Write a sequence for this structure.
């Protein structure tokens, strides 16, 4: 009861084409995350799904019905915004109930749903307060609650956590994951935070400049990126890209993730000097300037003592080395 | 006791400048009010001194209240000002919302067209307006004045309000749309309360020229029934003798209603934006 199909959706603002033909299928109960660099069209795509923006061409199908001409309120969706967007003049309770009231739901039913949602999100003590009297985290929970009470077919989240501080972000992320498990609803979530994408998603959609680069599960994207963009976008620190010609390879570019490199003080494939070391406790990031490979990042698990200027040898794991052709695609 | 941002000499300096400015700005007003309580001889003998027991005289006020239909003139002024203000704010805000919220062909052009009135004084069109009013039988009605003042106030209102409406969070409006609110509800319940301070600013800027205007009442509605206060005060300005007591008293009285309206709007200005909607 919550499937979504997007067929060749294009969106242009004047002469600027922001979405260049998006095709996507989301099955019922799936948690799909859109990631991509800033300005790639994630929010625009979400707004097209919500009906807040008309697509220039293409179809949006929710639950088998073409909704291209349906107003947002009738699409059976709920949206959570980055800036919370609570109604300042209404109490928490009325904020959550307004959509149902507009739809003509009987009052006892509205109260029942608000009761369930507010206990789920621990909002009971705040029901009579106004948004101005809540903290940022509480406001975002109210915004999520407002979506939950509508019992939508489709939840849409547009970077809901990016205004929260780091600790609160982790908590709220957990709450959203639990919410998905309990409601078993279809959710679409926009973020440019990799950790959110990797931890929440059943399926990640990587967007770049208005096009889908790859769709797949988190591990699929990590282990088998389709092209250089996805390889560089998923994973932190970023994958090292080395000019194939410098290594005497036929491929245009060679990619190795920092965690798939090992270092040794005596021997190895690429000799280099330590430029900088970042000690994070659980792991250490080393920046090496190599004679053959140029500047690369190496991620070592645990503590590793290396002074800038020291000579080290880095060796890539041959099974986890990616080869990209001139068009950026992975060579098999 | 000085802090990083405040030191005694600087505070004194700032206050001295502000107080001087206030004194200069208030001087004519005080002069008018002061002299309105004096006898004719007192006004001409010592215009700059406050009323003394010797010069104190309420003759001005008794003339104003006794002669002519001054309460009626007041009522006319008030009706015209409040009604024009209401329409300027309503239509101005609606046009501003449309311009800032909806993308349609000719949006920018329409905005420029609506703002044109800021640069072209409406009085240039007096003859045409008079002909129009004669043709539609609106001469000597308050409606004529209300229509003209609404037209006069709209350009600035649209211009200022559309700037402020652009700053209202899109997310909030979109949240309303998803909850099934109509565009009118979004406009009246979500957007207007958030731009209330700018509405108050526009109200103040619109109100004062309307209240003080002499031109259009004189041309469009000079009849006894439709006279406004400013026009009514002309009664005492004779070609040979001018009843200064009555004029000063009428002007002093005319300040009151604007002052009250101003206090109402400036409270709105200060009360500030309903915060907590976003961030
Ligand atoms: N109303 C609009 N008019 C013109 N251009 C727009 C409009 N809305 C968005 N754009 C353009 O569309 C592009 C995509 O915007 P969008 O908001 O979808 O990006 P995004 O992927 O959500 O980025 P971010 O991660 O920064 O939120 C941007 O280049 C933006 O400038
Ligand atoms: Mg966005």
């Amino acid at each position: 009861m919550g499937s979504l199909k997007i067929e060749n959706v294009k969106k242009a603002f004047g002469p600027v084409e922001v979405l260049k033909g998006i095709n996507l299928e989301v099955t019922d109960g799936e948690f799909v995350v859109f990631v991509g660099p800033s300005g790639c069209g994630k929010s625009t795509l979400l707004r097209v799904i919500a009906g807040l923006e008309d697509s220039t061409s293409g179809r949006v199908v929710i639950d088998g019905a073409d909704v291209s001409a349906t107003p947002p309120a009738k699409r059976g969706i709920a949206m959570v915004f980055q800036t919370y967007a609570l109604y300042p003049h209404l109490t928490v309770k009325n904020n959550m109930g307004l959509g149902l009231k507009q739809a003509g739901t009987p009052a006892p039913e509205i109260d029942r749903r608000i009761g369930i949602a507010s206990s789920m999100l621990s909002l009971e003590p705040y029901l009579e307060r106004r948004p101005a009297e809540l903290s940022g985290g509480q406001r975002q929970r109210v915004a999520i609650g407002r979506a939950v009470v509508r019992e939508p077919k489709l939840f849409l989240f547009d970077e809901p956590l990016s205004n929260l501080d780091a600790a609160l972000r982790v908590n709220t992320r957990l709450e959203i994951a639990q919410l998905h498990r309990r409601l078993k609803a279809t959710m679409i979530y926009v973020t440019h935070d990799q950790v959110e994408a990797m931890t929440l998603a059943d399926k990640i959609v990587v967007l770049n400049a208005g096009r889908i680069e790859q769709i797949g599960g988190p591990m699929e994207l990590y282990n088998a990126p389709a092209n250089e963009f996805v390889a560089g976008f998923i994973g932190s620190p970023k994958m090292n890209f080395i000019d194939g010609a410098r290594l005497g390879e036929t491929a245009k570019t060679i990619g190795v993730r920092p965690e798939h490199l090992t270092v040794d003080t005596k021997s190895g494939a690429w000799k280099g000097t330590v430029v900088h070391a970042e000690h994070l406790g659980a792991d250490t990031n080393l920046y090496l300037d190599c004679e053959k490979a140029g500047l690369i990042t190496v991620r070592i698990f645990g503590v590793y003592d290396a002074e800038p200027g020291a000579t080290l040898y880095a060796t890539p794991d041959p099974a986890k080395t990616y080869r990209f052709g001139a068009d950026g695609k992975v060579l098999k | 006791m000085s802090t990083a941002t405040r030191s005694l000499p600087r505070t004194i300096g700032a206050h001295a400048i502000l107080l001087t400015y206030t004194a200069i700005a208030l001087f004519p007003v005080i002069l008018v009010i002061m002299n309105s309580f004096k006898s004719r001889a007192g006004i001409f003998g010592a215009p700059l001194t406050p009323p003394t027991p010797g010069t104190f005289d309420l003759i001005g006020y008794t003339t104003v209240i006794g002669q002519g239909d001054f309460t009626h003139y007041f009522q006319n002024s008030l009706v015209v000002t409040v009604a024009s203000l209401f329409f300027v704010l309503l239509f101005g805000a609606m046009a501003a919302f449309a311009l800032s919220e909806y993308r349609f062909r000719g949006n920018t052009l329409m905005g420029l067209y609506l703002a044109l009135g800021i640069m072209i004084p409406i009085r240039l069109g007096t003859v045409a307006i008079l002909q129009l009013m004669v043709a539609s039988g609106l001469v000597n009605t308050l409606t004529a004045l209300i229509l003209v003042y609404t037209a006069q106030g709209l350009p600035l209102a649209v211009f200022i309000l559309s700037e402020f409406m652009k700053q209202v969070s899109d997310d909030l409006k979109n949240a309303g749309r998803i909850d099934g609110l109509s565009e009118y509800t979004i406009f009246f319940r979500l957007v207007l309360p958030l731009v209330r301070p700018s509405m108050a600013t526009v109200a103040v800027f619109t109100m004062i020229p309307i209240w003080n205007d002499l031109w259009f009442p004189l041309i469009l509605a000079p009849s006894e029934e439709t006279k406004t206060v400013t026009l009514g005060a002309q009664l005492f300005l004779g070609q040979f003798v001018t009843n200064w007591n009555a004029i000063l008293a009428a002007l002093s009285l005319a300040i009151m209603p604007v002052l009250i309206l101003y206090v109402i709007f400036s409270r709105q200005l200060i009360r500030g934006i309903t915060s907590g909607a976003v961030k």
Notes: Chain A touches chain B through 32 residues (CB under 8 Å). Residues 166-183 of chain A form the longest helix (18 residues).
